[in-house]
# Entry
Amino acid sequence: FGGDLPTIGNNAIRFTNNPFMPRDSAVSLGNVHVYGRGLMPSDVRKSYYTGLMVNIGQHEGGHTSQSQVWGPFYIPAWLIAGGLSQSNPFEIAADEASRVR
# Structure
């Protein structure tokens, strides 16, 4: 489907440079992380959610841990908590777990 060969890291199989993802975006689906072009797991960026400097791969790894705890309830809970909103506690927790100090 295009993109780079998969790698392993942050408790997940990682697919980078996926042409079907929006540029500079990433998503975690259980133990699978998919990164759009322009974003790599090793990148450090300022978070949209908290303004913290975070490691992107570790942020996505935080979501993997959350999905392991919540199981099939994770996605509905994430949506109910606000989805991509800045007040979503799942995103805030993933930022805290991936904060670069």
The chain is about 30% helix and 25% strand. The longest helix spans residues 56-70. The mean pLDDT is 96.
